Amino acid sequence: MNVGILGATGYTGIELIRILSKHPNAKITYLSSKHFESQLISEVYPGLDGFCDLILEGDNFKKAVATCDIIFSTLPHELTFEIGKMVVDAGKRLIDLGSAFRFDDFNVFKKWYGSNDDIEKIEYDKYNKAYGLTELYREKIKNAQIIGNPGCYPTSVILALAPVLKNRVVTDKNIIIDSKSGVSGAGHEPKFSNLYSECNENTKPYNVAKHRHIPEIEQELSKIMQEEVKIVFTPHLVPMTRGILSTIYCNLKSDITLKEVYDLYQEFYKNDYFIKILKPGKYPSTKSVAGSNFCQIGFETDEHTNTLIIMSVIDNLMKGASGQAVQNMNLMFGLPENKGLDIIRIFP
Fold first, then answer.
1. DSSP label at residue 318
2. What SS3 state is found at 5?
3. DSSP secondary structure letter of residue 66
4. Does residue 166 contact residue 240 with C-beta atoms inside 8 Å?
5. Can you give the pLDDT at residue 111?
6. Where are the beta strands (DSSP E) in 252-318?
7. Which of 52, 152, 199, 250 does the annotation list as catalytic?
8. Cα–Cα dist 103/96, whole Å
9. Residue 160: predicted pLDDT
10. Contact at 8 Å (CB) between 225 and 148?
11. Angle between the N-to-C axes of helices 258-268 and 152-166, in degrees from 0 to 180, rounded to the nearest 10
């Protein structure tokens, strides 16, 4: 496939290049960058020298659509809506790593991400799109023209909760989610709060009870349980580069042993290469998945309060973004899901 990456110099864009430059069925033919237009990508990121040496182009979306079989967009949603229409008209395919196509209800998107006159005109329901959480929506992803790649926090949370919600082992009330993310989750754009001296030796919550990933998580959990699910979600910034740890607390409907929980997860994800279920007593850590497309899930029960504690870890730039996007691309083109993604985690 000829592949284009729009917004190629951000963290998710560079991660896509790292994966796709070694993918046996993909050829990167178009890269765009607003800030580094006309420069070689290998001059901006010398580590790519010899692997990818394309010139970064501006926002020539018509050229990208005309010359590529599939486009990955890391651009703001206003631009991605424009690209989406061009992709549909040209019969090509798009994987959006932003927020534009993650929602079933366009009004929910507008409430959380704002809108303008151009966005109001979007015929959102007419797009042949799918939510790109591969393990849950394989068949839809295979045939979709546009994929809304999930957010990083939602990926870690939905994968962790899907088996127990589907099997109604826990209640849908009072699901409390405590997530911690590395600084790369904030993106490549410089921000005062992400300076080294601000982040180092510091852990802090942010966007408490109002993070934009809340409606995305609730949308998908509600579909899994087939009734409305509400969550309490608190994200934290921790002083590491990459990784997400989500610790989730939910009320058990009845007594269940750790072995039974383990067996339930093993059965639910038995055909999913990238989901690793840890045996009872083992807990996941972000280092164990760094640089890979794997998600590790562990759990514990608190008999005193009849609470199930679920812990999941992903690399926010891989399974939480670019790795999952390539996993979806593989599905869309009839390739094995792990093609180009069979990467052992980096340690230490």
1. I
2. strand
3. H
4. no
5. 87
6. 275-277, 295-302, 307-314
7. 152
8. 12
9. 98
10. no
11. 110
272-330, pLDDT tens digit by residue? 999 999 999 999 999 999 999 999 999 999 999 999 999 999 999 999 999 999 999 99
Q: How many CB atoms lie within 10 A of CB 334?
A: 8
Over residues 24-58, the pLDDT tens digits come to 999 999 999 999 999 999 999 999 999 999 999 98
**What would the 3-class secondary structure string for 114-139 be?**
CCCHHHHCCCHHHCCEEECCCCCCHH
Partners of 346 in beta bridges: none
Q: How many residues does the chain have?
A: 348
Q: Which helix (H) or strand (E) holds 173?
A: none
Q: Which residue has the tokens 């030796």?
A: 201
- Cβ atoms of residues 83 and 5 within 8 Å: no
pLDDT tens digits, residue range 92-140? 999 999 999 999 988 888 888 876 655 655 667 778 999 999 999 999 9
- How far apart are the C-alpha atoms of 90 and 92, rounded to whole Å? 5
152 is catalytic: yes
What the block records as the tokens of 307 is 């609470």
The backbone torsions φ and ψ at residue 289, rounded to the nearest 5 degrees and listed phi first, read -125, 0
Record the tokens describing residue 188, joined without a space: 């490549």
DSSP class of residue 345 equals: P
In angstroms, the first-to-last Cα distance of the chain is: 34
pLDDT of amino acid 232? 96
329 burial class (0-12, 13-18, 19+ CB within 10 angstroms)? buried
For residue 231, the Cα-to-chain-centroid distance in whole angstroms is 19
CB-based contacts of 233, cutoff 8 Å, min separation 6? 153, 157, 177, 179, 209, 211, 213, 214, 217
